[in-house]
Amino acid sequence: LQKGSIMFERSAPSRFRLDLSFEGGPRSRFGDDYAELSRAEQASTINWMIAVGVARGSTELTGYRDCKSSGFYFILQLNYRRTHWRIIACPHNAEIEDLDDNTYTCNPQDDDQFELEAFEGQTLSVEYADEELWLLDGESRRGRGHWVFADETVAAGKLPPGDYYPTVLSSNCPTSFFARVA
Fold first, then answer.
1. What Rg do the C-alpha atoms of the chain give, in angstroms?
2. Distance between CA 91 and CA 89 in Å, rounded?
3. Helix (H) or strand (E) segment spanning residue 169
4. ω into residue 91 within 30 of 0, thus cis?
5. What stretch of H or E contains 136?
6. Can you give the pTM of this predicted structure?
């Protein structure tokens, strides 16, 4: 997939999970395996940025820029050495809250963004449940998107009511992953 979007079907509209597994290989290396590549080899790598989340069912998607208007997403971007994912939420009027109640900025220009270790074969997931969007690493919840709304009827940390579908948006970076919706 390059610069596109995929909206998946789900069996239950109120609770679903989208798992993404990032396979290794000659064009998708992590950590020291990546650092040992030449600059030319590093330039041709894949899987360095992707957005995963939920989109409103009535939305026509075109690609990565839809993250600001079509739904709610976690943007996953690998750091320079490909050892950690730097994660922000989109739209950016949000924070990510970890399980210890620490909050992290989602402003792309700021530091102190949420991070998770990155490695070959890793499965990251988003789970939509009880009008909340969670980020999982393997089977463990690691953080929750906390969007800010002017409408006081939306409870803190909840998404507004809607007909949401699991969705992946990619930038102009070639992307290869295995997806499963549960």
1. 16
2. 6
3. strand 164-170
4. yes
5. strand 132-137
6. 0.88
